[in-house]
């Protein structure tokens, strides 16, 4: 005796219900997003590469491996963009070197260069925001990572109003970091 499974003998409504149940089962079997706490990890900073890039240990499966991390939502002046690039790097160094930092990830975890993308927290302070608020970096939203865009945008407005760092009216930065890189590389 041959058993044949088909929907022909079943009514159209029942057929749709069976298809819907199969789709729900497939969706339920998909891997779920990890809980919120798993999007954060404590790391140790080994080097500040620039005002927006760090080298860290403690990221990923191999805790002794050094990884590069690009801070999300900011664009710090290039190191050749003096004096602002050096100032941004020195400020970030003063905040993080040899101290544990918590990295928080957003939607996209890596950039096209293989660097991890993260927000950096130290003692409950969002360092990305501090760099922008003190005038050491610009806010630059990059899709799909928008978790703290509003905070960063407000920090930039504050720095501009106060004339801090790159916004100093006596010696303002004339080219954005992106413009500088396009023009001089």
UniProtKB/TrEMBL annotation:
Keywords: Endonuclease, Hydrolase, Nuclease. It comes from the Bacteria. Pfam families: SNase. InterPro entries: SNase_OB-fold_sf (IPR035437), Staphylococal_nuclease_OB-fold (IPR016071). SUPFAM superfamilies: Staphylococcal nuclease. Residues 39-169 form the TNase-like domain. Coiled coil: none annotated. The keyword Transport does not apply. This is Thermonuclease family protein. It comes from Brasilonema octagenarum UFV-OR1.
């Amino acid at each position: 005796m041959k058993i044949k499974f088909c929907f022909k003998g079943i009514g159209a409504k029942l057929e749709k219900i069976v298809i819907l149940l199969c789709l729900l089962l497939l969706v339920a079997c998909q891997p779920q997003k990890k809980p919120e706490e798993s999007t954060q990890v404590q790391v140790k900073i080994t080097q500040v590469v620039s005002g927006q890039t760090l080298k860290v240990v403690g990221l990923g499966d191999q805790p002794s491996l050094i990884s590069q991390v690009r801070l999300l939502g900011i664009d710090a002046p290039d190191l050749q963009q003096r004096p602002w690039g050096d100032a941004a790097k020195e400020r970030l160094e003063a905040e993080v070197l040899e101290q544990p930092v918590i990295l928080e990830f957003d939607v996209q975890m890596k950039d096209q260069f293989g660097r991890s993308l993260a927000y950096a927290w130290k003692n409950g302070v969002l360092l990305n925001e501090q760099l922008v608020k003190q005038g050491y970096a610009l806010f630059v939203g990059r899709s799909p990572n928008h978790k703290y865009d509003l905070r960063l945008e407000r920090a930039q407005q504050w720095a501009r109003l106060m004339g801090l760092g790159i916004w100093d009216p006596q010696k303002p930065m004339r080219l954005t970091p992106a413009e500088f890189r396009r023009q001089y590389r």
